[in-house]
């Protein structure tokens, strides 16, 4: 069964209907107000929607079991009610798990960006969630207060912000017991670890160093599996979006560029390397400025940012196209980029062999010569890095 989740458009959101939609997902036991401080820092460039889980805040209670896939479908219903189309998503804890479900499932081709905050592709063990569901059905969410305050916040936060903690714990008590228990059971059945590597949305994983629910090591493993940027926040527990609202908002602003040019520039730097792009920008003249902006906005901001293909595949297609069109200077650049995107020397060799059949042996021969030079440069750079690392170790010894 697909439950109902209701959301509110942040009142300070951008009034520009062309502004990207950013959906903020909550942690279990919290309401959308917990996102308000961070959300207010994102509304200048986004239409920001904060939603509540079933039986939380403004979302109606439910008595029918549901899965994480059902919760993801409910979020899509909400997004479609706001006009549909592409959107960005950031979620904390259970909200982050919904984001992973969206990215690995029904919204994989609709997400422009994903932020997973204090969450994982599998959170805890099924037995723990079913046990908590039973406890809440017997004793209500009020029985969770003592354990929750220590689980949610880093040491010292309660002393620094007693009013914030008090409000959040009151919201927990007000949550519908059965809906909370059903959320626990949805988490008990949630495991997307095998699918994390298939997520193509541009992603960031944010963790707290004092989070006992999703540890720093677990968050780092998730980021590696997703190929995502990873950020660890100091002196932060399980509610990073609350404890570090300013920092989280700043990270989301950087991860979710407000326009196509900014998005393209980020990808361009990641693929071609920062120094190369800096050199290109330094060489801009009044005659080439518009062309450089065109490349960044349309090649990098419109095509390379699309979620339909991962960067390895895009590099493979680009290599073949450049060989076919005899663009040898660009080929050298993109052979370096392909290795940065994760293609191995052996895979690039196979791509050139395949290209030889359809683009012609002479062109492939030229491409292999360029690849040989690129591989040698890569090997030499790696050898220099190893030598520098050994030298640094010797100095420490």
TrEMBL record:
InterPro entries associated with the record: 4CMD/NDH-1_regulator, AB_hydrolase_1, AB_hydrolase_fold, AhpD-like, CMD-like
Positions of the AB hydrolase-1 domain: 20-244
One Pfam family cited in the UniProt record for this chain: Abhydrolase_1
Domain Carboxymuconolactone decarboxylase-like: 290-372
Transmembrane segments: none
Protein name as it appears in the record: 3-oxoadipate enol-lactonase
């Amino acid at each position: 069964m697909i439950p109902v989740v209701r959301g509110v458009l942040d009142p300070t959101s951008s009034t520009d209907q062309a502004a990207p939609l950013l959906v903020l997902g909550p942690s279990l036991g919290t309401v959308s107000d917990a996102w308000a401080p961070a959300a207010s820092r994102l509304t200048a460039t986004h239409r920001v929607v904060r939603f509540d889980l079933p039986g939380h805040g403004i979302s109606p209670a439910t008595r029918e079991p549901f899965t994480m896939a059902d919760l993801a479908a409910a979020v899509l219903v909400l997004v479609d009610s706001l006009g549909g189309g592409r959107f960005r998503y950031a979620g904390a804890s259970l909200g982050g798990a919904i984001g992973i479900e969206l990215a690995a499932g029904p919204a994989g081709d609709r997400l422009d960006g994903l932020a997973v905050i204090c969450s994982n592709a599998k959170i805890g063990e099924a037995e723990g969630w079913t046990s908590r569901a039973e406890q809440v059905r017997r004793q209500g969410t009020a029985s969770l207060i003592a354990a929750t305050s220590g689980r949610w916040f880093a040491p010292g936060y309660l002393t620094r912000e007693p009013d914030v903690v008090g409000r959040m714990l009151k919201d927990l008590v007000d949550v519908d017991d059965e809906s909370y228990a059903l959320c626990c059971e949805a988490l008990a059945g949630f495991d997307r670890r095998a699918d994390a590597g298939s997520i193509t949305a541009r992603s960031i994983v944010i963790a707290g160093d004092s989070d006992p629910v999703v540890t720093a090591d677990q968050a780092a493993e998730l980021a590696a599996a997703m190929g995502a940027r990873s950020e660890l926040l100091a002196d932060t527990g399980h509610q990073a979006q609350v404890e570090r609202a300013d920092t989280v908002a700043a990270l989301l602003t950087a991860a979710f560029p407000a326009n196509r040019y900014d998005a393209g520039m980020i990808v361009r730097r990641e693929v071609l390397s920062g120094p190369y792009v800096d050199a290109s920008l330094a060489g801009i003249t009044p005659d080439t400025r518009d062309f450089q902006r065109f490349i960044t906005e349309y090649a990098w901001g419109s095509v390379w940012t699309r979620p339909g293909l991962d960067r390895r595949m895009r590099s493979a297609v680009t290599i073949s196209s450049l060989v076919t069109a005899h663009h040898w200077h660009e080929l050298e650049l993109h052979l370096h980029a392909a290795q940065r995107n994760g293609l191995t020397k052996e895979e690039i060799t196979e791509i050139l062999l395949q290209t030889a059949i359809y683009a012609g042996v002479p062109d492939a021969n030229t491409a292999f010569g360029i690849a040989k030079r690129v591989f040698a440069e890569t090997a030499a750079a790696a050898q220099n890095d190893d030598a520098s690392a050994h030298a640094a170790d010797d100095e420490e010894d």
